[in-house]
Amino acid sequence: MSASGRRTPLLEASAAWLLAVLWLSPLLYAFWAAFHPVEFATRFELLAPLTLENFAKAWTYAPFARHLLNTVMLVTMILSAQLVLCTLAGYAFARFEFAGRDIAFGLVLVQLLVMPEVLIVENYRIMSRLGLVDTILGIGLPYMASAFGIFLLRQTFKTVPRELEDAARVEGCSFLGVLWRVYVPLARPTYLAYGLVSVSYHWNNFLWPLIITNTVNTRPLTVGLAIFGAPESGVDWGVISAGTLMAVAPLLVAFLLFQRQFMQSFMQAGIK
Amino acid sequence: MKHVYGWLLLTPAAILLVGFTHYPAAATLFDSLFSSGTVVRPSRFVGLGNYAALADDPIFWQVLGNNLWFALGTIPTSMAIAMLMALWVNDRLPARALVRMAYFTPTVLPMIAVANLWLFFYTPQIGLLDQIGAMFGMASHNWLGDPNTVLACTMAMVVWKEAGFFMIFYLAALQSLAPELEEAAKMEGASRWYFFRRVTFPLLMPTTLFVLVNATINSFKLVDHLFILTKGGPDNASSLLLYYIYQVAFSFFDSAYASTLTVVLLALLAGLAVVQFQLIERRVHYR
Amino acid sequence: MRSLLALLLAGLLAAAAPARAATEITFYYPIAVGGPLTKVIDGLARDFEKEHPGIKVNPIYAGNYDDARIKALAALKAGQPAQISVLYSIDLYELLEQDVILPWDDIAATADDRAWLKAFYPSLMMNGIYKGKVYGIPFQRSTIVLYWNKDAFKEAGLDPEKAPANWKEMAQMAAKLVKKDASGNVARWGVMVPSTGYPYWMFQAFARQNGHDLMNPEGNRTNYAHADVIAALQYWRDLGAKHKVMPEGTVEWGTLRQQFTEGKTAMMWHTTGNLTAVKSTAKFPFGVAMLPASKQRGSPTGGGNFYLFKKTTPEERKASLAFVKWMTTPERAADWSIATGYVAVRPEAYETAKLKEYAAGFPQAVVARDQFKYATAELSTFQTGRVRKLLDDAIQASLTGQKTPAAALKEAQAEAERLLKPYR
């Protein structure tokens, strides 16, 4: 990590800090509104009483525990499938020469542009026909073959020295054996990086899950939060803030604990 | 033998990709040539009829315009702020780790949560913006209820969410720059601004283009906030293309028209991709 | 090991068997008022099951009205079970066009059943009847009422017990209630009428008060551009633009209640569904009144009805009928009204002891009921999503000054005509 040697001039540093405070303010407000009774949601008196009532209420308004479970199942399922599928495909593109490879790769890259969210009308119809409406599998299926993942792994696998592969082949490994013994272990940093990016993305995904899920049994946190946050009778800031915080807490806490890894992951993913 | 193997490895991913990207894209195009069917009135071929209706639809043009303004407003702004953030965080800034965390935090929040939080900011009179304004004697303003300000308000929120994400890519690029460059510049007495303009910025160009592509795609994909903030109002002033598609498909049950709108969106994305890839080819040559 | 497996299998079969014999009804419902009402509904379902062994009730909370409609229809299309649902009263035409609902008349076999169909307030039945048959049974219904801040009235020198009775009074009283702070900015508005969320609903009140309904009972013609209707929208706009008693631009549905309870507006038009919430959060005495009249009093009804789906077996239909009748007994209607603030859907409910007692201590609760005789059906036509959005957009365009009321409404009417002509 190389940083430039100069100390930032005070004016610039102040600007940077001011921006940081500005950037944190919505979240800070959410904490304020969540922990104070509703009368103080819009009044910022320092000695206002603290309360956990908003959290208690929010907990009963929406089944957050169930939503959390659904979300965890969803991202786990998607990531597992992505790791397998993208590894196989990335390996194919990196090390095999087969007819039509470049065209196939180009077609894969199309998905970077044309994501499942854009094709909601048609994908919904397909899911209907497959009988996967309102299932967690239905939410995850369109995302399991990730062009981004394939791209990343292809780049990573390409950097593996051929000698290692040759050595393994000499020992009698099949193609899949080589994949498992040589390529996968060397690509671990990429897997970690990709894993964090994927989990973040799917944890926070909203539009497609909204369309595909009908009931509480499958709704992830984002959809639960949206329904919770838009009742017809109007919003109660304390409760909304509490609910919002509960919904973002898992990922936020994970981020705060593993900041470095998160940022490294996104950086790595970007470099490739 | 290798050929077969290659395709075999690719097949699982290929099935899903074709199934949920390529086939639906083609099917959408096909469906846009038919009318929507209900049980009472079945669907029939109308050729370009849906497209004619599209051209006549004032809401479509409004929504398209909104989306283009939205892209224009959020992309350069978030990129510029991201670059600034990266430069600051890359320097020896006191409390640097904290600042970096502050900048990146919005990225790990879902857009829905962000909208919930910002709704309060924009609420007239009791909302935070108006309260701060009141301290300075400003009148309360109906931020989300005024068609002149609502789009800008959503843009501000999206910039807030995205800038930290782009900052990371710039940070990565900055950290791969050779420190000797800066030392050489210092020795020659170049000012910081000069150094940035002539050395850093050009070297960041590949990242800039990568971020540009990402930001562009996002500006057409990010509609989650509309569900909470404005539902596209007032009078479609804040509506975006993908949100309109959702309304037409799932509120009006007009799947043919929704397909037509989707085709327009796809064409737009494809066109932008072509333009941007051409830019990349030309600019990123020395790499 | 084998015997254990056999035992397990037998146990499973035994457990599964009686469950299969029960009739199961699934229903989607929206929550339109915030609160732990999912618990109330679940509790009601369990109570019903206790009294009716052999029927299992499965309530599914679907979000708001739009969500409930989308989800119920999606479930039906996907082949998932749904026997009844509480859906928007105005979804009627959409459901008819998708050919998914049955009239309750068809399964109301006994004399008792038929009497039950007639036991509801007529104005609540309006949205549920098509070609003489009853498709929607009222359940969670509301009207719009005027909430007013009695302390604010006293402060402005007005009688705190008297709400404005007509449009002129409302504009005049609101003008007195506007309070400005030291720098000349408005600290409290006179009246606020929400124009996001359900602008067409609020506008129906204005139109009705000026003597007109916005659609015909057959659901194939709208009346957006009548001179009186345009005048009604003009009055709404004038409140903000001319009399300056309301903020200009759109007023947000979701945050209006809090703005009222925070004292940022002295009066508000809102759904009775907010009653319980306002009662628990307002720190000042407040009144609830019928909406002011112009040529007459008026308010649209709103809310959800029970619909019966076609894809049901005869046992499921009988079970559904039993459940819906049970949910709408006077006692239960009274309970539901007290818990939520929705109006009780049948006159007998107001004769029950508990509702009488509640109304004695909290007279605001019966204002909506008294307004029923002036009530009109909620805006509902074929292609209802689009036709309603046309009106919503026109209202928002007028209130934000983008178009004049006349221009906006005439445009909307022309477009609505185009959409509805094929249905005539």
Provide the fold topology:
The complex is a heterotrimer of chains A (272), B (287) and C (424).
Chain A: H1 10-35, H2 53-61, H3 64-95, H4 101-113, H5 120-130, H6 136-140, H7 147-158, H8 162-170, H9 175-186, H10 188-203, H11 207-212, H12 221-228, H13 237-257, H14 259-271
Chain B: H1 2-31, H2 49-56, H3 58-90, H4 96-104, H5 111-122, H6 128-135, H7 150-175, H8 179-187, H9 192-203, H10 205-221, H11 224-229, H12 241-250, H13 255-283
Chain C: H1 2-21, E1 23-29, H2 37-51, E2 55-61, H3 65-77, E3 84-88, H4 92-97, E4 101-102, H5 111-117, H6 122-125, E5 129-130, E6 133-134, E7 137-149, H7 150-155, H8 167-177, E8 179-180, E9 186-192, H9 199-209, H10 227-241, H11 253-261, E10 265-271, H12 275-281, E11 286-289, E12 299-309, H13 314-327, H14 330-340, H15 353-361, H16 367-371, E13 375-376, H17 384-399, H18 405-420
Helix pairs in contact in C: 9-10, 17-18
Short description:
The complex is a heterotrimer of chains A (272), B (287) and C (424). Chain A is mostly helical and 272 residues long.
Work out the radius of gyration of chain A. Answer: 23 Å
Helix and strand composition category of chain A: mainly alpha
* Molecular shape of chain A: globular
The share of residues in helices of chain C is: 40-55%
User: For the largest interface in this structure, which chains are involved and how many residues does each contribute?
Assistant: A-B, 99 and 98 residues
